[in-house]
Every structure is written in structure tokens, then in C-alpha cells.
């Protein structure tokens, strides 16, 4: 069995901590068994490793989430969507990737979201989808959650009545987000919550691509990705399939997609600086800034503070935040493969000059890409740590207190020997994340380039290459 985890989301429902670059699965708000804070994706990947499935798993995500995945999970296998085009194109691309890697057409492929909040048995149950496909003869096998209450927030899988006494049932129909009264009747009929987990044989998806006139080879489909219709897998495939099986899962499952559901499973009432009065019962504070936040006499609330904004909301009303967040807002905090950055200030002057100021963290042993900017100059003030600067073949040790200026058109990179923080001031007619041309990203390639330029290669523990 091959697992494909879908990682997407625009980051509106858990604003201001989530944004276009850091959607809900990357928020480090869950406490693990060691007392450390971890994200949903870190928790799920740990469970997958514990179930012995990580060697068979790959994550499909858009290019804007690649670096944060690398930051939080390390060198996991990733299929990169050039742009967001909904779940059918993403799954088609993942299937073509597996096919191009030589995976057998008879192999079972399981699709699941990257952020379910479940117990470990959930991943043991996923293995049973392979048997359900084989024994039922169905084209698609789903896993449904036994409901614990009549929720109007979830979709329902309604099995056909009767049938043989097997581990699986044939699906009769689907009902999307019914009223609570309707949900209660559906549960009486044996309906299950649709948790977004399903499986098919790789040959099934390859046949779909052929019938749609789409290429089976990964590189060919990647080249045509921007032309694919934006459509969900449910609409494009599941609703048109006549023979679908479903297996029940009776363990713990929750979608932590809103502030009220997330805080129910956080374990901590407060993360970050601040204080909550005793009469502010069932109130949670998450503060990512260095300023303290004090909450007095406000029960049943969520107060979330980040560089992107401040949310103060009654928990029951918090799902409405997605309707009030301005679309296209620039992320003020991002995690990258090498560390993180936080936007401190942005100004645009009458002469058209833009100035963007960031605080940047570069992890020990990590490096920026060897790149140049076309439209801006950068000035770095090193706050803590030490490392080396590579600048157009010139190699210089840097440490706390040093100031570095990078002019437009200058290839440069930075590597940290110890955890480093620095202030970056970008100045120019255009200050955008996309304003760069990168020559190398890996340190080995940068080292090799420095050697051919006449510089001495870096060695561990040295201040100079």
C-alpha cells in the first residue's frame, strides 16, 4: 500500500496564526508526550512512522508549503503541485508520480488528509482498506468514522441497507452537512462521518487519466498541470462511481479546523506571554509576539496574537473569522527549510522606494540559497550566532554585531555554524519574495562553486570556508 497525504488549505479558519504560507496543519499548538509543542502534521507523521507506514508515504502539496514541510519534518518525500488546483488534479499528479516511479498498477493507493486528530489505531485501520478493495470488488474503498453525535458540520456516508455480514458495506449515497435532525436520522441508518480517507488501485486512476486524455507520465502531467480543471476528487470521480465500499472506524477522530475545536485538544490554556484571570473560564490565549497579553473576565473566548493580526472572539463564533479575513493579505510570519522569518515593518515612500524589515532565524548548519535579487538591496545586521557569508566568490566569517550589505545583482548566501538571528532591511523599487534568481540551494553545490572560484571549502567548526 502507498499513502498519499494531501496538504493544502488557505489558512483562513485559524487566522491570525494561519495564513497562505502556514495553514492550520503547521501550527505548533499541540503538546506531545514529552511536553514539547508540535504541529498537526508533525503529530500525524509521527503516528505514521509508529505504524511502520512512513517508507510508503508521500506528501502532495503546493510549492508555497514545501519549505515549511521540510522545516518541520525534514527530508520527507514531497510531490510539488506547481499551483493549487483542488484535490482531483493533486491526486492525479500523485498517481502519475507513483506510476512513473515504477509502482505496480495493482498497488493500492490510500489518500488521506495530512491533519486528522486521531488515535494510533486510525493508521492500523487504514491497512484494512486494501482488503476491502480486494474482497468487495469495489473501485473505491472509503473509511468512515462512527459518529459520536449528530453533527451538522460533517459529510455523511450512508451504506446500503442489509447485505452480508462483512467488515465492509456497499455505499448507498452521500449526504453533505445535513441539519442536526437529519444527521440523527442518518446515524440511525448506520451512516458514518466522511473523514476524507479512501483507497483505489493505481490502475483505476491511470485509466481515469487515459479517458480524460491526460498523460500518465509524471513530467508530462506536470507540464500540463496549469491547464487541468479545478475540481475536487469527490465531484470528478467519487460521485460518478457506482461501486464504492466503506469500512467503519470506531476510534477517536476530530477535525481541528476551527478555534473552538482546536482549543478543546490543546492541553494548555496559554501559549506565550500573558495572563488569564480565574474568572475567564474556558478561555485560551496563544501569543506569538514578545508583548504580554492580559485577559480579565472574558469566559469562553479565544485570543490569538501573531504578526499577522489579533483575534478576540467568543469560541462559538470563531468560525466566522474566515469570512472577515481580507483575501491576499501578505503573510507576516513564515517557516522555511532553513529557519523562519517575521516581518517587522513595511513602508513605501513618495519617490516609490519600498522598505521591508524582517527578523530572520537561521538554524545551525542550515544555509540560504545562493541567489541574487534584481530590484532590491539587502542590509543584514547580525544579532546572535556566527557563520559564513558567500558573496560573488568572496568568503567572509560573520558574527554578532557585523553589518553586511548586498547590492542588486549580487549572488550571495549565508550559512550558520550556530543558531543565528539577524535583521534584514530590504530597500528598492520592488520588495517581493519572488524577486530572486537562485543558482544553488544545497550547500554541497555552493561549496563546489566556491572551490572552482578559488575559495577554500568549508569544514565543520571553522569560521571560514
What does this structure look like?
- One of its GO terms (molecular function) is mannose-1-phosphate guanylyltransferase (GTP) activity.
- It comes from Saccharibacillus brassicae.
- It holds the Pfam family NTP_transferase.
- InterPro entries: Man6P_isomerase-2_C (IPR001538), Mannose-6P_isomerase_type2 (IPR051161), NTP_transferase_dom (IPR005835), Nucleotide-diphossugar_trans (IPR029044), RmlC-like_jellyroll (IPR014710), RmlC_Cupin_sf (IPR011051).
- By secondary structure, the protein is an alpha+beta fold.
- Helices cover 21% and strands 34% of the residues.
- A hairpin with a 2-residue loop joins strand 18 and strand 19.
- It is globular and about 75 Å long.
- The two termini are 45 Å apart.
| CATH homologous superfamily annotation of the largest domain | Spore Coat Polysaccharide Biosynthesis Protein SpsA, Chain A
Share of residues in helices: 10-25%
Shape: globular
Number of helices: 12
Cα-atom Rg, whole angstroms?
25 Å
CATH fold field value of the largest domain: Spore Coat Polysaccharide Biosynthesis Protein SpsA, Chain A
List the quaternary state of the chains. single chain
CATH class of the largest domain: Alpha Beta
Number of domains: 3
Can you list the strand order of the major beta sheet?
Answer: 20-21-22-29-24-27
CA-CA gap between termini: 45 Å
Provide the structure class: alpha+beta
Largest sheet: 6 strands, antiparallel
Mean pLDDT across the residues is 91
What fraction strand?
25-35%
Number of strands: 30
Low-confidence stretches: 457-465
GO molecular function, one term: mannose-1-phosphate guanylyltransferase (GTP) activity
Domain Mannose-6-phosphate isomerase type II C-terminal: 336-437
Pfam families: MannoseP_isomer, NTP_transferase
Domain Nucleotidyl transferase: 4-264
Amino acid at each position: 500500500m502507498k499513502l498519499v497525504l494531501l496538504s493544502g488549505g488557505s489558512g483562513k479558519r485559524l487566522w491570525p496564526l494561519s495564513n497562505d504560507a502556514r495553514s492550520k496543519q503547521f501550527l505548533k499548538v499541540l503538546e506531545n508526550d514529552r511536553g514539547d509543542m508540535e504541529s498537526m502534521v508533525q503529530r500525524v507523521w509521527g503516528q505514521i512512522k509508529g505504524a511502520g507506514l512512513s517508507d510508503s508515504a508521500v506528501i502532495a502539496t503546493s510549492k508555497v508549503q514545501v519549505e515549511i514541510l521540510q522545516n518541520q519534518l525534514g527530508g520527507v518525500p514531497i510531490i510539488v503541485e506547481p499551483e493549487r488546483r483542488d484535490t482531483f488534479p493533486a491526486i492525479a499528479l500523485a498517481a502519475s508520480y507513483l506510476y512513473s516511479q515504477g509502482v505496480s498498477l495493482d498497488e493500492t493507493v490510500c489518500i488521506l488528509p495530512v491533519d486528522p486528530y486521531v488515535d494510533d489505531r486510525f493508521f492500523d485501520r487504514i491497512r484494512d482498506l486494501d482488503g476491502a478493495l480486494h474482497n468487495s470488488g469495489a473501485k473505491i474503498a472509503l473509511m468512515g468514522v462512527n459518529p459520536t453525535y449528530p453533527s451538522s458540520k460533517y459529510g455523511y456516508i450512508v451504506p446500503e441497507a442489509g447485505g452480508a455480514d462483512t467488515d465492509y458495506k456497499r455505499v448507498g449515497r452521500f449526504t453533505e452537512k445535513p441539519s442536526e435532525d437529519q444527521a440523527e436520522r442518518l446515524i440511525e441508518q448506520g451512516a458514518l462521518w466522511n473523514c476524507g480517507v479512501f483507497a483505489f488501485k493505481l490502475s483505476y486512476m491511470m485509466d481515469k487519466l487515459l479517458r480524460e486524455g491526460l498523460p500518465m507520465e509524471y513530467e508530462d502531467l506536470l507540464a500540463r498541470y496549469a491547464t487541468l480543471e479545478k475540481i475536487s476528487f469527490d465531484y470528478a470521480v467519487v460521485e460518478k462511481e457506482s461501486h464504492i465500499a466503506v469500512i467503519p472506524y470506531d476510534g477517536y477522530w476530530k477535525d481541528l479546523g476551527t478555534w473552538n475545536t482546536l482549543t478543546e485538544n490543546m492541553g494548555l490554556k496559554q501559549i506565550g506571554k500573558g495572563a488569564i484571570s480565574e474568572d475567564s473560564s474556558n478561555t485560551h490565549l496563544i501569543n506569538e509576539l514578545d508583548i504580554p497579553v492580559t485577559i480579565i473576565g472574558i469566559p469562553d473566548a479565544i485570543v490569538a496574537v501573531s504578526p499577522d493580526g489579533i483575534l478576540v472572539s467568543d469560541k462559538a463564533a470563531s468560525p466566522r473569522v474566515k469570512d472577515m479575513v481580507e483575501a491576499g493579505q501578505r503573510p507576516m510570519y513564515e517557516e522555511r527549510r532553513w529557519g523562519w522569518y517575521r516581518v517587522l515593518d513595511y513602508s513605501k515612500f513618495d519617490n516609490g522606494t519600498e522598505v521591508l524589515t524582517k527578523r530572520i532565524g537561521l538554524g545551525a548548519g542550515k544555509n540560504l540559497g545562493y541567489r541574487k535579487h534584481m530590484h532590491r538591496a539587502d542590509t543584514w545586521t547580525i544579532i546572535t550566532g556566527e557563520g559564513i557569508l558567500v558573496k560573488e566568490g568572496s568568503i567572509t566569517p560573520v558574527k554578532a554585531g557585523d553589518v553586511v550589505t548586498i547590492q542588486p545583482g549580487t549572488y550571495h548566501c549565508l550559512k550558520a555554524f550556530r543558531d543565528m538571528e539577524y535583521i534584514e532591511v530590504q530597500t528598492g523599487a520592488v520588495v517581493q519574495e519572488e524577486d530572486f534568481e537562485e543558482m544553488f540551494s544545497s550547500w554541497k553545490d555552493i561549496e563546489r562553486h566556491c572551490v572552482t572560484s578559488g575559495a577554500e571549502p568549508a569544514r565543520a567548526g571553522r569560521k571560514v570556508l
